[in-house]
Design goal:
Main location: membrane
Pfam families: Wzy_C
Order of helices and strands: HHHHHHHHHHHHHHHHHHEE
GO molecular function: ligase activity
Strand order of the largest sheet: 1-2
Number of strands: 2
Distance between the termini: 26 Å
Largest sheet: 2 strands, antiparallel
Radius of gyration: 21 Å
Shape: globular
InterPro entries: O-antigen_ligase-rel_domated, WaaL-like
Helix content: 55-70%
Keywords: Ligase, Membrane, Transmembrane, Transmembrane helix
């Protein structure tokens, strides 16, 4: 019975991660599934997560107690409808925060890091196969058509993730996850998943994703091979690598001297005028912002004015920068809380990554690096319900838990630890 219950738990996590990654969204399988089915999946994931967190309430309390700042940030996001420009919109979408938080708490408390990486890899591989099926059986779902609103890239694959950039981003996450799979997994499974992800990434035509994937693999190898455990310089060196990655990826993707033949421009495809306008508006409400999602809400005058600043009249759905958007949502108070939580998790991930030879313990470090770099030109933090924020708080919750450590012997090294 325990065996079957564990299988059911893993299946639930796969379903939840798939839903949060947009597989059942209105631009993906939501096009062919009835709204009743999608709504049922949403409330099943939310309700079951809440129930399971309550069942394992002792672990939940311990995990929350170790992450007070993250809990405070979640509460601020939930209560932001009090000062929101569109309180009804913010209040209605507060369910997303509750769902992501409860799901992450359950995932972090019931699965160790090795199991988390394995389940995430399985979920993304299923997404890869579903994307192949969608592209050939339901091309209107899996491939951008010339009739789409985004007519600049007909023929680009979007799989079951709604948009080519989302598809490319998920394939980056897939490639990194398979690259850091535990050694217990078969060699064939690991490298098949990794190669499959790269092929689908190419079919998405997302150049940012391709650049980001190779930068992340390079950074993982850097983390793996250059271990200066016991020296404080390691923290500053790796934070420098993180910041350098945030600069390199946008430059390699958009910089006009390098990519003039790709039709890009030096304003990051129109992002900088939007950022300038949004920063100006942020200074009008700096402490608590405009409320979660309110600045870019449907019919928001700020979103309309941002499009006018761009000179096209296009109404932006978000600020194309996750850090800017979280500041617009929750103000500088929320943004500083997020930075504190992020860098605390990053330092913990560094300590863990340098204390083991096992690649799966580098996954949190790789994911936090991926999240930071990808949010420079995209908004994948607290916006809507999404797998990125879910995995971020899962990583933060997991890294705060106490673990048993055993020393491992490495020639000429004295301070390495093996995390179990």
């Amino acid at each position: 019975m325990k065996k079957y219950l564990r299988i059911a738990e893993k299946a639930f996590i796969v379903l939840g991660l798939s839903f949060l990654s947009g597989v059942f969204g209105v631009d993906s399988l939501g096009l062919v599934l009835s709204s009743a089915v999608v709504t049922f999946i949403r409330f099943f994931v939310w309700g079951m997560s809440t129930l399971l967190v309550a069942v394992f309430w002792k672990n939940t309390i311990i995990t929350c107690r170790n992450n007070i700042l993250l809990c405070i940030l979640s509460v601020i996001a939930l209560l932001s409808f009090f000062w929101s420009e569109f309180p009804d919109f913010t209040l209605f979408n507060s369910r997303d925060v509750l769902m992501m938080t409860s799901f992450s708490l359950y995932f972090a408390t019931r699965f160790n890091q090795k199991q988390q990486v394995q389940v995430i890899a399985n979920t993304l591989l299923i997404g890869c196969f579903l994307s192949i099926i969608a592209a050939f059986v339901l091309p209107s779902v899996g491939i951008h058509q010339a009739s789409d609103a985004m007519v600049s890239h007909p023929g680009a694959w979007k799989g079951v993730y709604g948009h080519k950039n989302n598809f490319g981003s998920m394939m980056v996450l897939s490639s990194v996850t398979f690259f850091t799979l535990p050694k217990e997994n078969s060699f064939l499974y690991k490298w098949f998943g990794f190669g499959f992800s790269l092929v689908l990434m190419l079919l998405s035509t997302s150049k940012t994703s391709l650049v980001l994937s190779f930068v992340l693999i390079f950074i993982i190898m850097f983390y793996k091979n250059f271990r200066w455990h016991g020296k404080i310089s390691v923290i500053f060196t790796n934070i420098g690598v993180l910041l350098l990655g945030c600069i390199i990826v946008p430059l390699l993707t958009y910089w006009v001297e390098l990519l003039t033949g790709l039709g890009r421009d030096a304003t990051f495809t129109g992002r900088t005028p939007i950022w300038t306008y949004a920063l100006g508006r942020l200074m009008e409400r700096p402490l608590l912002g405009y409320g979660r999602g309110a600045f870019w809400a449907p019919k928001s005058p700020y979103a309309i004015e941002a499009g006018q600043a761009l000179g096209t009249g296009w109404v932006a759905p978000h600020g194309h920068n996750g850090f800017l958007d979280i500041a617009l949502d929750l103000g500088l108070i929320g943004f500083l809380l997020f930075l504190t939580i992020y860098f605390t998790a990053f330092v913990r991930a560094l300590k863990q990554g340098y204390a083991t030879k096992n690649l799966e313990y580098l996954w949190p470090l790789a994911y936090l690096t991926f999240l930071s770099i990808n949010n420079v030109t995209e908004s994948i933090l607290l916006r809507g319900e999404n797998v990125y924020w879910t995995l971020f708080i899962t990583v933060a919750f997991t890294l705060s838990q106490r673990k048993t450590v055993q020393p491992i012997n490495i020639p000429n090294q004295k301070n390495y630890l093996h995390v179990t």
